[in-house]
Specification:
The protein is of the alpha+beta class and 225 residues long. The protein has helices at residues 63-76, 93-111, 166-178, 192-210, and strands at residues 2-5, 32-38, 42-49, 56-59, 79-86, 120-127, 130-137, 143-147, 181-188. Strands 1-2-3-5-4 form a 5-stranded mixed sheet, with helices on one face. A hairpin with a 2-residue loop joins strand 6 and strand 7 (130-137). Helix 1 runs parallel beside helix 4 and helix 2 packs parallel to helix 3 (166-178). Mean pLDDT is 91; it is low at 8-20.
Length: 225
């Protein structure tokens, strides 16, 4: 069960886009959204401001995951608050996936009709020996191409442990509800922490560019995204 409110607090049944701007209308700033999800496995609340200052507050019960999601907000220049409680005694999977789902909802809600956004962005981002490539498109079509591989026996990070393979589940959930195309690939890297952190920072910097308003129309020949 989830709910989402865009920058005007408009309900879905009141018409218009979730972010409060109609197609062809430049959205008012700051663009923001809040969403929540409550199930028998998790309870997640997220608040997102796209035109923020990189102020982040993340608490999921998984310290390493908190660190990664904080990198996402900080380096995208978003104001981001994430509060999550999950059945960590079972596995971290449910918490990580549901945070991705709700954060993606917020991204989609804050973008609204995507009027004026740059839409496309890409970057190769280094972190010491690690180099990660990201290309994304705020296309309205969820798609994840993930090329960051870890061996099944790669140790988890933090306590409780974050399984590195869960990063793919996070990005899959995020792209699904965020309705974006994301290509994420590790070009080089040996240190698990470095590879994961470079991945989150790279997506963050690409999002920072892609959500930027630089025009007055929807960047699509279809007229909608």
């Amino acid at each position: 069960m989830s709910r989402i409110a865009g920058s005007t607090g408009r309900r879905d049944d009141e018409g218009g886009s979730p972010g409060g701007a109609s197609v062809g209308e430049v959205p008012s700033l700051p663009r923001r959204a809040a969403a929540s999800r409550s199930t028998k496995e998790t309870a997640v609340d997220v608040e997102l401001v796209l035109d923020g200052g990189g102020n982040v507050e993340v608490a999921t019960g998984l310290p390493f995951f908190d660190h990664m999601v904080s990198q996402l907000g900080r380096h995208a220049g978003f104001d981001l608050r994430v509060a999550a409680r999950g059945d960590l005694e079972v596995d971290a999977h449910h918490t990580v996936e549901d945070v991705g789902l709700v954060l993606g909802e917020c991204l989609s809600g804050a973008l609204g009709a995507k009027t004026g956004v740059r839409r496309f962005a890409s970057i190769d981002l280094p972190l010491d020996e690690a180099l990660v490539s990201v290309a994304l498109d705020l296309s309205g079509r969820p798609y994840l191409a993930y090329g960051v591989d870890f061996a099944p026996d790669t140790p988890g990070l933090g306590s409780p442990a974050f399984d590195p393979q869960l990063a793919e589940e996070f990005w899959r959930a995020f792209t699904t509800t965020g309705a974006l195309t994301l290509h994420l690939r590790c070009i080089s890297g040996k240190n698990t922490h470095h590879v994961l952190e470079a991945s989150f920072k790279a997506v963050a910097r690409a999002l920072h560019e892609a959500v930027r308003i630089e025009g007055a129309g929807v960047p699509s020949t279809k007229g909608v995204l």
